[in-house]
């Protein structure tokens, strides 16, 4: 495979423009670590989509001594801001959209110093405290610094160093993030995208260590890797199927699949499109036909579009162009129904379509610490979505579907009583 570093310059420039123009000495968001009151719980919740901010010491001691001082590091700048230096690359956005804790009725400030990031974003012990007050039992956390699927590491010129850095990130995630609270976190690895055979070996190795999921870019061909439909990925898909490793496809992990002539404010409204287009690409790439037990999650794209995709698949069935591109006994809609899962952040108009979407394929997401997050009022948002549903259906969306998919057990006491954890 060939790979090029994704051009994040436009996103970085936009995020920089959105940042505070104050002097970046840190501490410009004084309320950032205030602890809200513990919310009353109605639902047990597993979030299938949260994020972590890589702490400054993540790579300390995790790369071979032969690399000297090349380990990724946080650097203080003369203007008081901080940047990450990644083997010569300077990343000025240290925590994209990590704004949890800021007052929602004021302008949100993109942090440029760790003093302006809520501790729960990068300190796992503080994160569990935030989950406890919000009533979230378990969480799957995507990366930030390295890209949602680790893409930023793949194009480093020294490929041996790049692979070792990917492994170091995964080591930290399973040992330092998930390790202290294995009941509270679902381990999600980043893959090696430059060689699917090596990637498959890593899937097997990491499955033995407790990883349940892998974050994978929506459209790898856009980034210079092999396209989704390439047979080159077969060893990877096969490894995921054999280990029951869930493939988590996060919106934005390969850039934005929908171009807009408008501003970022316009672009942020395309959440459904950002997930619908890649989902259709994944379906017709046919990896789920070849590997029928593959599990694919479309993350942070909402669910309102799913019923529309089924309508289109049904409409197109039997048409000549569909028969030409899908020469299988099983219908595309059947594969979509069997192999794909979806996440809801706030889709009230989709609830009446939940059976058409697939009640057992919908999971809840909190999106901590991003601007869309329901924290610290996740229970309120969940209730607005689920209050009119039968309890068994509400439980499926709130936690049971994620528990089954990721093989993450929820103790019986917590299933029946959401107040039964995190008493402090």
TrEMBL record:
Gene3D superfamilies per the UniProt record, alphabetical: Metal-dependent hydrolases
Keywords, alphabetical: Lyase
Name of this chain's protein: Unannotated protein
Keyword Lyase: yes
MF (Gene Ontology): carboxy-lyase activity; hydrolase activity
Origin species: freshwater metagenome
One GO process term, biological-process aspect: secondary metabolic process
Cellular component annotations (GO), alphabetically ordered: cytoplasm
InterPro entries: ACMSD, Amidohydro-rel, Metal_Hydrolase
Domain Amidohydrolase-related: start-end pairs: 165-407
């Amino acid at each position: 495979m060939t790979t090029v570093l994704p051009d994040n310059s436009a996103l970085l420039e936009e995020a920089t423009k959105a940042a505070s123009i104050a002097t970046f000495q840190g501490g410009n968001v004084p309320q950032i670590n205030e602890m809200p009151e513990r919310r009353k719980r109605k639902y047990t919740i597993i979030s299938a989509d949260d994020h972590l901010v890589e702490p400054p010491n993540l790579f300390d001691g995790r790369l071979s001594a032969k690399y000297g001082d090349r380990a990724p590091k946080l650097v203080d700048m003369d203007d008081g801001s901080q940047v990450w230096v990644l083997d010569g690359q300077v990343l000025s956005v240290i925590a994209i959209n990590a704004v949890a804790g800021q007052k929602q009725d004021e302008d949100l400030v993109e942090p440029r110093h760790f003093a302006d990031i809520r501790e729960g974003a990068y300190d796992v012990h503080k994160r569990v405290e935030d989950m406890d007050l919000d009533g979230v039992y378990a969480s799957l956390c995507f990366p930030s610094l390295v890209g949602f699927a680790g893409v930023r590491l793949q194009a480093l010129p020294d490929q041996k160093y790049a692979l070792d850095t990917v492994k170091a990130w995964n080591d930290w995630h399973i040992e330092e993030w998930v390790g202290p609270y294995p009941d509270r976190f679902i381990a999600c690895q980043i893959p090696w995208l430059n060689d699917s055979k090596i990637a498959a070996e890593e899937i097997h190795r990491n499955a033995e260590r407790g990883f349940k999921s892998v974050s994978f870019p929506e459209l790898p061909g856009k980034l210079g890797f092999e396209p989704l439909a390439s047979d080159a990925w077969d060893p990877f898909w096969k490894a995921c199927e054999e280990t029951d490793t869930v493939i988590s496809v996060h919106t934005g992990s390969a850039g934005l699949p929908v171009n807009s002539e408008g501003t970022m404010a316009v672009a942020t409204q395309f959440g459904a499109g950002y997930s619908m287009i890649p989902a259709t690409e994944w379906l017709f790439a046919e990896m789920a036909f070849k590997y029928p037990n593959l599990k694919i999650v479309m993350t942070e794209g909402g669910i309102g579009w799913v019923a529309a995709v089924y309508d289109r698949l049904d409409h197109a069935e039997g048409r000549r162009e569909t028969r030409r591109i899908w020469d299988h006994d099983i219908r595309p809609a059947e594969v979509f129904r069997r192999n794909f899962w979806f996440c809801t952040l706030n889709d009230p108009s989709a609830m009446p379509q939940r059976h058409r979407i697939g009640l057992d394929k919908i999971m809840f997401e909190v999106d901590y610490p991003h601007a869309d997050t329901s924290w610290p009022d996740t229970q309120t948002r969940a209730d607005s979505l689920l209050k009119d549903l039968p309890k068994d259906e509400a439980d499926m969306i709130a936690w049971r579907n994620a528990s089954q998919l990721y093989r993450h057990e929820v103790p019986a006491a917590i299933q029946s009583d959401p107040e039964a954890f995190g008493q402090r």
